[in-house]
Design a protein that fits this description.
The chain has 173 residues and is an alpha/beta fold. The chain has a five-stranded parallel sheet with strand order 2-3-1-4-5, with helices on both faces. It is globular, with a radius of gyration of 15 Å. The two termini are 13 Å apart. The structure holds shikimate-3-phosphate (S3P). The site of shikimate-3-phosphate has 10 residues, from loops.
Length: 173
């Protein structure tokens, strides 16, 4: 059994939280959860619709409610939405986890991976590159202040990123 019962992945859009989280959960035999997917399933609508109809505030309220529900339930590997760290109450809840991994990537890779994105409402703007830059400028210090570990993904395959995380979580194994 893993010593880690709750592992949360945080970081920007396009860092690979969902892909890495799924593989990590499999490697540790823990259930995998993705907060965005749960929000969509519970709402019966996609995130763009929620932003359109309820605004970002409405989405954030749903996100906080889901996080509260998930963090009281163990065990899990949780992939979070990029903005989950914005609310102090969310940051407090995240502290319940055994490990909070900040997946970070060079800006050029974030931009490449999200270039043609049509699903993420915050990137449906005239200049998505500038938006990503501004979000990282605002959020990188917050991710770092919340994280117990920082893992750089860059161009590496999700499998290698998972190996890195496992070697951090299970040194000597
Ligand atoms: C957001 C990131 C998205 C999603 C929503 C808002 C953000 O999740 O929660 O579009 O504020 O950065 P991903 O990080 O999984 O793309």
């Amino acid at each position: 059994m893993s010593l880690y019962q709750q592992i949360v992945l945080i970081g920007p859009m396009g860092a690979g939280k969902s892909t890495v989280g799924r593989l990590l959960a499999h490697a540790l035999s823990l259930p995998f959860k993705d907060s965005d997917h749960i929000i969509e399933a519970k709402t019966g609508a996609d995130i763009r619709w929620i932003f359109d109809v309820e605004g970002e505030e409405g989405f954030r309220n749903r996100e906080s409610a889901i996080l509260e529900e998930l963090m009281t339930r163990t065990p899990l590997v949780l992939a979070t939405g990029g903005g989950i760290v914005l609310r102090e109450s969310n940051r407090d809840l995240l502290q319940c986890a055994d490990a909070i991994i900040y997946l970070t990537t060079e800006l050029e890779y974030l931009i490449q991976r999200t270039l043609k994105d049509k699903k993420r409402p915050l990137l449906q703007v005239d200049n998505p590159e500038a938006k990503i830059l501004a979000l990282m400028h605002q959020r990188d210090p917050i991710y770092r202040s919340v994280a117990t570990h920082v893992v750089v993904t860059d161009k590496r395959s999700p499998k290698w990123v998972v190996r890195d995380i496992l070697s951090i979580l299970q040194p000597g194994k």
